[in-house]
Amino acid sequence: MDELSSEFNISADVYGNVLIAALEAANNAILHGNKLDESKYVNIFVKMESHLLRIKIDDEGNGFDYKNVPDPTAPENIENVNGRGIFLMEKLSDRFEFTRNGATVELEFNIK
Predict the structure, then answer these.
(1) Mean pLDDT, residues 85-109
(2) How far apart are the first and last CA of the chain?
(3) What is the predicted pLDDT for the residue at 83?
(4) What is the pLDDT of residues 40-74, one digit of tens each?
């Protein structure tokens, strides 16, 4: 991320958003997608197009029901330690999308 930040002159605000959202996506892929199985891979693809930074993270899991994730800000979920990663990805990126039944997440950031 530091190399990308320098190469594309990414502002500190956007840098922080990218770092946290990508870290959450990678952690989810390792923990939930691959279930900590060290024989499985997490692939991270980074692409710069004009003023957009795109990050795609794939795991080898079966995916999950990403349309029915509990809202971590709801009073009944406020003390739950899980469930904040997707919320953070959504709030910190300019666009995010799950594909492959949730085994792939694509994050997009406007860097200008």
Answers:
(1) 96
(2) 17
(3) 79
(4) 999 999 999 889 999 999 999 999 999 888 889 89
CA angle 34, 40, 41 (to 5 degrees): 95
DSSP 44-110: EEEEEETTEEEEEEE-SS----GGGPPPTTSGGGTT-SSS-HHHHHHHHSSEEEEEGGGTEEEEEEE
Burial class (CB within 10 angstroms; exposed 0-12, middle 13-18, buried 19+) of 53: buried
CA distance 97 to 6: 26
pLDDT digits (tens, 9 = 90+) for 12-30: 989 999 999 999 999 999 9
For residue 33, give both structure tokens. 């997608």
91 contact partners, CB below 8 Å, separation of at least 6: none
